[in-house]
Amino acid sequence: MPTIGLFIPCYVDQLFPKVGLATLDLLESLGQTVEFPAAQTCCGQPMANTGCVNDARPLARRFLEIFQPYDYVVAPSGSCVAMVRHHYEELLHGEPGFEELKAKTFELCEFLTDVLKIEKLPGRFPHRVGLHQSCHGLRELRLGSCSEVMGPQFSKVKQVLQMIEGIEFVPLTRPDECCGFGGTFAVSEEAVSCLMGEDRVADHEQAGAEVLTANDMSCLMHLDGIIRRQKKPIRVLHVAEILSGSAT
């Protein structure tokens, strides 16, 4: 049986541990052997995004060292997986095992559709749900189709969520627009970031969403902050929480 190395992003580990536990529960319920290497650290994305490449390189090497023994690496985060698959090239090019690491690292929903190829899931979630599709997931991992691109429309995240009985997706006006978080962008360009987030929340609200979900907790953290400050009647849940049955 292949063994999965569960990669939990640092902000999920520190602020949203329920998402990590939901991911573990989901994978184990599907018969997977999962290990959580306790030595794991940040993937280095915050440093790389702000141009501190030399500070990110030791973290990338540590990531490679820790996760190299596993058959797969799975994370409930499109942005962190995109860091490994697309941006470690600058940090780890030529390092032994790097190409294998890229090929076996997957975002959670991508792993369910492309590797496990699941066709059904148990559980029931009778709520009106707005799906936020994160930029990293769409434009780097190709987890879904972008509205500006001609061709068949698809979403791997929605494909998995549709397996849950009772879920109803609300129609958004801008289904693939950025939430405005962008990591340190939310700090350096706070006003723009907040306005973009308010636009996304308003879109979900006008569509009648009871629950706003996504496969990136960073986006949800940003949107949830806006929702709570504005006292909107919308609940925020990570996709893993819905899929694992830990959300009701």
Automatic annotation (TrEMBL):
GO terms for molecular function: oxidoreductase activity. One of its GO terms (cellular component) is cytosol. Residues 5-84, 129-224 form the Cysteine-rich domain. It comes from the Bacteria. PANTHER family: LACTATE UTILIZATION PROTEIN A, UNCHARACTERIZED PROTEIN YKGE. This is Lactate utilization protein A. It comes from Anatilimnocola aggregata.
